[in-house]
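Sample entry (252 residues):
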Amino acid sequence: MTLPPRVTVIEVGPRDGLQNVAAAPATDVKAGFIDRLSETGLPVIEIGAFVDPRRVPAMADSADVARRIIRRPGTRYTALVPNLRGLARAAEAGIGEVAVFGAASDTFSRRNIGHAIAESFAGFREVIREATVMSVPVRAYLSTAFGCPYEGDVPAPRVAELAESLLQMGAFEVAVSDTIGVAHPGQVWRVLDAVGARVPLGRLALHFHDTRGTGLVNVLAGLEAGVSTFDASCGGLGGCPFAPGASGNLST
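Predicted structure, serialized as tokens:
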């Protein structure tokens, strides 16, 4: 077995970890949380989401959080954006890297961002085009890649096709995501076999939730397949307000 010599951890706790809490911490508390994460030397921290605050109230203060954090040299600070308006707000707050968030199942896509896959990808293309003009790198999430809370199994060839499409639009990386934590190592290998046949594994990350306690063993499966970038959340915080059954993320 040959494993990658180095692993990159994307810290998503301030966004994916806090978006689903019953009572969101105060802005200063969030900023302090991010500052302490920065002190650990993490290479990438996702600080929030520039989304409709009526849908995700816990992320309503992301611009203020972005302005209050102490930015450590060598750490990239990112945020989710759903559309051009979100991109503009993120840029205004000084965010130099963003992420769009799509899904591999239509039902979850509609519940999560209000559009079917085809409509959402058309919007992502606009965001990535504008971000490129602004010299802002764009990462892409592909949710429900291992299973959907509404549709069940998601075909691996569909995941591969959508991941390839996101990279062709100009995303520098696609985080293939187990939104509800149902993946197991055999499925991780199958999905990565399908996706790896169409895109370089070096352009992929894996995003696991630990609903069934399989997060770490799924990471090992990903490492064995050749992926070396993984999302994780401080303390295993996490969950999705639009995905019934989603528990915390893989713990950083």
